């Protein structure tokens, strides 16, 4: 068995090889000095790129990957409704580990399969019933499960509860390759006298990582003082939250407006099923190889396809001429189509009323409403920010219908 907290030296050194000078150019700065291994709603701006990689490296080094048969686990539910699993490690010693918020939901989904039922049990103070059901479903049928375990100094925490065929890949590998591929592209751009790709931010929730790259060479003028740059959003999850996705979009520097248009590349985290054991970093690196190679190829291909951006620029440009006759009707349509909450609709209404970044001549247009969505998204958690970015990127046709 291999100790999953250790790494081979050759791949650790790869982070130091990234030439930040070729990536790090002036731009929007979101500072977060957080260096703990807690990965809930962190944002790293351009000037914090080294810290972001340090954070991801620390998280990878602190993660054990165990494949355990579910019949050899015991679930415990405490008075607050938090789930802990008890199982034996490679030393045949009992491990007691609580699930974080993300893994909590995965354990329920992969055992009893009904989060609402679990919640009802907890609210009804029937913790014993919730615990009994969890343990019954863990053993019927009994299957191998991948547990990604974070090793803190004073406790252990489950950050992912997955199938044994999940492709082990740490966000560290993906992020490092994103920056390496960006540096390579920028070296070619520098020799050709064109502007660089800029790392704008990396953001993290418990489930997903998002890296935003701006293409400063490709600028699109929509008229009426609205200028956007092409953007790639690279999304990944090393805890079963999502595939490796590349999405295109637009970004407006002056307002920090994010519009995500299309997912143009997606690769699932699927690998051969693993037997019961602890799997160290050499297995993670081996499985990650396919995804890492896809990253470098993907960045180059996306940015070379200007037609993707031109088509959407034309569509977005048209929204500056679409007048919304009934804003209440338009908001109701958006709420229904994209399942916005009452609170979000209220926030959007306030944004449309008070936002000074929307030019006077664009107020009351479809473009103004779309900008309101992106402005509303600036102060929310990473997952919802990117969901709202996708809504902003794809709501133009809906607004034309209700205008």
Which SSEs are present, and which pair or pack?
Layout: H1 9-12, E1 42-45, H2 49-61, E2 63-69, E3 74-77, E4 83-88, E5 94-99, H3 101-109, H4 115-123, H5 127-139, E6 144-151, E7 156-163, H6 171-192, E8 197-204, E9 209-221, E10 227-236, E11 244-252, E12 257-267, E13 277-279, H7 281-304, H8 306-319, H9 327-338, H10 342-354, H11 366-376, H12 382-394, H13 396-402
Parallel strand pairs: 5-7
Antiparallel strand pairs: 1-8, 2-6, 2-13, 3-4, 4-5, 6-7, 8-9, 9-10, 10-11, 11-12
Helix pairs in contact: 2-6, 6-7, 10-11, 11-12
How would you characterize the overall build of this protein?
The chain is an alpha+beta fold and 403 residues long. It folds into two domains: 1-317, no CATH class; 320-402, no CATH class. Helix content is 41%, strand content 24%. The protein contains 13 helices and 13 strands. It has helices at residues 9-12, 49-61, 101-109, 115-123, 127-139, 171-192, 281-304, 306-319, 327-338, 342-354, 366-376, 382-394, 396-402, and strands spanning 42-45, 63-69, 74-77, 83-88, 94-99, 144-151, 156-163, 197-204, 209-221, 227-236, 244-252, 257-267, 277-279. It has a seven-stranded mixed β-sheet. A hairpin with a 4-residue loop joins strand 11 and strand 12. Helix 10 (342-354) crosses helix 11 (366-376) and helix 11 runs antiparallel to helix 12. The radius of gyration is 23 Å and the shape is globular. The N and C termini lie far apart (64 Å). 42% of the residues are buried.
Summarize the structure.
By secondary structure, this protein is of the alpha+beta class. Helices cover 41% and strands 24% of the residues.
């Amino acid at each position: 068995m291999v100790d999953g907290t250790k790494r081979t030296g050759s791949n650790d050194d790869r982070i130091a090889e990234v030439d930040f000078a070729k990536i790090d150019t002036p731009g929007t700065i979101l500072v977060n000095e957080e260096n703990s291994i807690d990965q809930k709603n962190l944002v790293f701006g351009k000037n914090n790129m080294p810290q972001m990689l340090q954070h991801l490296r620390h998280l990878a080094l602190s993660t054990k990957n165990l494949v355990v048969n579910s019949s050899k686990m015991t679930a415990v539910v405490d008075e607050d409704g938090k789930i802990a699993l008890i199982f034996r490690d490679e030393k045949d010693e009992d491990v007691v580990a609580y699930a974080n918020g993300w893994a909590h939901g995965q354990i329920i989904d992969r055992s009893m399969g009904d989060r609402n039922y679990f919640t009802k049990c907890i609210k009804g103070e029937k913790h014993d019933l919730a615990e009994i059901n969890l343990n019954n479903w863990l053993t019927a049928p009994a299957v191998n499960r991948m547990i990604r375990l974070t090793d803190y100094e004073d406790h252990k925490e489950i950050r992912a509860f997955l199938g044994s065929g999940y492709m082990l890949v740490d966000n560290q590998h993906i992020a490092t390759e994103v920056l390496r591929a960006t540096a390579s592209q920028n070296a070619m751009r520098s020799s050709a006298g064109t502007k660089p790709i800029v790392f704008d931010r990396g953001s993290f929730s418990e489930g997903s990582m998002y890296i935003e790259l701006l293409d400063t060479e490709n600028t699109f003028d929509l008229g009426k003082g609205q200028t956007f740059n092409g953007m790639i959003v690279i999304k990944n999850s090393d805890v079963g939250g999502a595939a490796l996705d590349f999405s295109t979009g637009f970004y407006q520097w002056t307002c920090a407006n994010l519009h995500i248009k299309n997912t143009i590349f997606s690769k699932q985290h699927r690998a051969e099923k693993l037997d019961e054991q602890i799997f160290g970093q050499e297995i993670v690196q081996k499985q990650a190889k396919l995804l890492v190679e896809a990253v470098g190829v993907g960045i180059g291909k996306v940015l070379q396809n200007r037609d993707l951006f031109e088509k959407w620029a034309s569509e977005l440009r048209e929204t500056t001429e679409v007048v919304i006759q009934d804003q209440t009707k338009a908001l109701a349509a958006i709420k229904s189509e994209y399942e916005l909450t009452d609170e979000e609709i209220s926030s959007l209404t306030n944004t449309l009323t008070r936002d000074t970044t929307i030019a006077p001549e664009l107020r009351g247009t479809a473009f103004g409403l779309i900008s309101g969505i992106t402005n509303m998204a600036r102060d929310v958690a990473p997952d919802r920010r990117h969901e709202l970015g996708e809504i902003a990127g794809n709501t133009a046709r809906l607004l034309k219908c209700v205008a």
